[in-house]
Structure formats: C-alpha cells, structure tokens
Design goal:
With about 300 residues, this protein is α/β, with parallel strands linked by helices. It has two domains: about 1-140 and about 285-290, Rossmann fold (3-Layer(aba) Sandwich), CATH 3.40.50; about 145-265, 3-Layer(aba) Sandwich (Rossmann fold). The chain contains nine helices and 16 strands. The protein has helices at about 10-20, 60-75, 105-110, 130-135, 145-150, 165-175, 220-230, 250-255, 285-290; strands at about 1-5, 25, 30, 40, 50-55, 80-85, 120-125, 140, 160, 180-185, 185-190, 195, 210-215, 235-245, 260-265, 280. The chain is globular and about 60 Å long. It starts with a strand and ends in a 6-residue tail after the last helix. The protein binds ribose-5-phosphate (R5P).
Length: about 300
C-alpha cells in the first residue's frame, strides 16, 4: 500500500505515520499557476492500492480541490485509491438544509468522490457520519477523546457534552474512565450564529469536569459550557476536543472562559506558539492501529 500525503496533512501527523506506523510516503509535487489554480503531479510510478491522506483545514476549499486532483492523478497512473484518510472532514456540519434555500454542503462536497469509485473514508470524529454513509461511503470513524484525556493525565469526576449531538462522544469517554456523564442543551441562532444554553440544574459542585466535543471554531460552545459549569460550582473544567480550528479570537474566547486546559488532536495544522494550556496530542498511532484492523499494508 502506498500512502500519498497531500498538503493538508499536519507535519506532526505525517511524522507519526512515518515513524510510528512505518508507512511508505509519497508526496506529490505541488505548485500554483499564476492565475491561482492548483497543480499537482505524482512524480513516481505507482501501482496497486493507494491511500490518500488529506486534512481539510485550513483553506478547506483549496484542500478539497487538491484532494480531487490527487484522486484523478492516481487513477491516471493506473493505480486505485483504495480509501481516503481524512483526519478532518470539512463541510460536514451543514449536513441538512437548516434554512430554506441552503445547500446540503456535505453532499455538494463529497458526492462526486463516488465517481472515482472511492468507497471508504477513514476519518477522525466526523461531525455527521450519516451525512457520508448516506452518499454510499463506508466510514471508519475514529473517536480520539479517551486517547486525548489519557494523554492529558487529568483525573475527572464527570464528562459533559455541550449539546445533545456530542452525547455519544461524551458517553464513550465516561464509559472508558468509569465516571458519570451529563449534557446541556445548546441552541444556535441559525442566522446570527449566536449560542444560547438552556438553564439546567448541573450537579457538579466541587467536581473536575471534562467537556467533550468534536470541533472548536469560535470557541463559543466550550466557553458557554464552561461558564455554566463554573456557575454551578465546578472546581475545574477542561476541554477535550478532536479538531481545534484555532484563531486568535477563539484562543481569546477560550482563555477568558477559564478552562484550565484544552487537550486536542493533531488532525489539523495549528498556529505556532500556542499558549501552554493547549496540549496537542499525536493521533497517528490511533489512526494506523484502526486501519490495521481491516487492511494489510
Ligand atoms: C456543533 O454542533 C459542533 O459539534 C461544535 O459544537 C461547534 O462546531 C463548535 O463551534 P464553536 O466553537 O463556534 O462554538
């Protein structure tokens, strides 16, 4: 099996795949035409089964086009893309028409990959698995939260999902660490993006709580949940999140929420010089051990 690394693959993850998993690596030549269009070329002859790795953040749209170019280039070389490894799958949050006139973005972005006979996607914590399986993909979805919490070495008394959607993730962590699990109700205004958390009695007095979620974008969800927990008497709050799409603004929002730590996976490239309370954990071995369960390479 040949693994093709596209430009979205974070360096630390690629290093992990090479050093911990022993994957044979091929990196295409990339360039940008003067008009802004992307070009890639697979410099070596390849044969047989190929897996393409691409994380779709930052610059999601460019990373998606690069992925399409690579899939076509592989088929032009006479090889076959057996599966895609997408550590971060962009555009899966808009998995339905929330408002009249909106697109189903997941369908718009991923459906055409089926034309290249790609049938399997290996992903880390897809926001909506169903949005991909409904297009005919088989999805191996890897939940990293227990691995992250373990790496953080933090003892927690309770795991909290910041909305109902995150509950299966939180329950998996609660089961692994044998602690209780709870959730709060979050509502997002679909026009303004503003988040509201429903008042709910939280029995967290004196507890150390881990908030478990899939994505940080503005940081608003984690900040509001942390606020509710501290108001209810929590002793400390950490956030355990698969994909941190960090910006200066979201780092500020998280910092003012007083969480003591954010532990997150290296599924996307991060800004340099992160504050000390953000811990980035390598999940390469988690991904390759999952893949080795069903494919030999
Ligand atoms: C939404 O349903 C997701 O699971 C995340 O909770 C959300 O994307 C986080 O976004 P933000 O950081 O902007 O609140």
């Amino acid at each position: 099996m040949i693994f093709i690394y596209l430009s979205g693959t974070p360096n630390s993850l690629a290093k992990g795949f090479e050093e911990k998993c022993g994957w044979k690596v091929l990196r295409p030549i990339n360039k940008v035409f003067p008009d802004g269009e992307q070009y890639i070329r697979l410099p070596e002859a390849i044969a047989g089964n190929v897996a393409i790795i691409q994380s779709l953040y930052p610059e999601q749209d460019r990373k998606i086009v690069e992925l399409y170019l690579a899939v076509e280039a592989v088929s032009g070389r006479g090889a076959r893309t057996k599966f895609l490894i997408l550590p971060y799958t962009a555009y899966t949050r808009q998995d339905k028409r929330f408002l009249e006139g909106e697109p189903v973005s997941t369908k718009a972005v991923y459906q055409n990959l089926r034309l290249f006979e790609i049938d399997t996607i290996v992903a880390v914590d897809v926001h909506s698995i169903q949005s991909l399986t409904s297009l005919g993909f088989k999805v191996h979805n890897i939940l990293p939260h227990s691995h992250l919490l373990n790496a953080a070495g933090e003892k927690v008394d309770l795991v909290l999902a910041p909305d109902r959607g995150a509950l299966p993730r939180a329950m998996e962590v609660a089961k692994t660490f044998n602690v209780p699990c709870d959730y709060i109700e979050k509502f997002r205004d679909r026009v303004t993006g503003e988040i509201r958390i429903d008042r709910k009695e939280l029995n967290v007095s004196g507890m150390s709580v881990a908030i478990v979620d899939d994505i940080i974008s503005t940081g608003g969800t984690i900040a509001k949940a942390a606020h509710a927990l501290y108001n209810a008497g929590a002793k400390s709050v950490i956030a355990v999140v698969s994909h941190s799409l960090l910006s200066l603004e979201s780092i500020d929002a998280l910092s003012s929420s007083n969480i003591s730590k954010l532990v997150t996976a290296n599924t996307v490239s991060m800004p340099n010089n992160l504050p000390k309370w953000i811990q980035v954990v390598d999940v390469s071995s988690l991904i390759c051990s999952e893949i080795s369960k069903w494919v030999s390479y």
